[in-house]
Design goal:
alpha+beta; Pemi-like Protein 1, Chain: D; 2 domains; two-stranded antiparallel ribbon; disordered C terminus; SpoVT-AbrB_sf; Transcriptional regulator, AbrB family; DNA binding; DNA-binding
Length: 99
């Protein structure tokens, strides 16, 4: 297990091999939690709720139009797929703005 040094303002450098393994890139969000005897650091993804909500309701309307005379089970399946698709479409890594 590699050792890291805490520098100014509490910053640490995550070793390159660990960043590559976890897919961590500059600007990514990380969640830091206290755990038994230390802390855990996990990559996290932010979701824009308003964007997600808008896309979801547009998809619901499209589904309603496309399945007007369909079996209710088909409608339920189509809505479940829309929920999955909306989650995937809006899930993104939030990058800080560079000046």
């Amino acid at each position: 297990m590699p050792l890291v040094r805490v520098i100014r303002n509490g910053q640490i450098t995550i070793p390159k091999k660990l960043r590559a393994t976890l897919g961590i890139e500059e600007g990514d969000l990380l969640e830091v939690k206290l755990s038994q005897g230390g802390m855990t650091i996990k990559p996290k993804t932010a979701v824009d709720k308003e964007l997600s909500k808008g896309r979801f309701f547009r998809m619901v309307e499209e589904i309603r139009e496309s399945v007007k005379d369909a079996d209710p089970r088909e409608v339920d399946a189509a809505l479940a797929e829309a929920v999955r698709a909306a989650g995937k479409a809006t899930s993104k890594k939030m990058k800080p703005r560079r000046s």
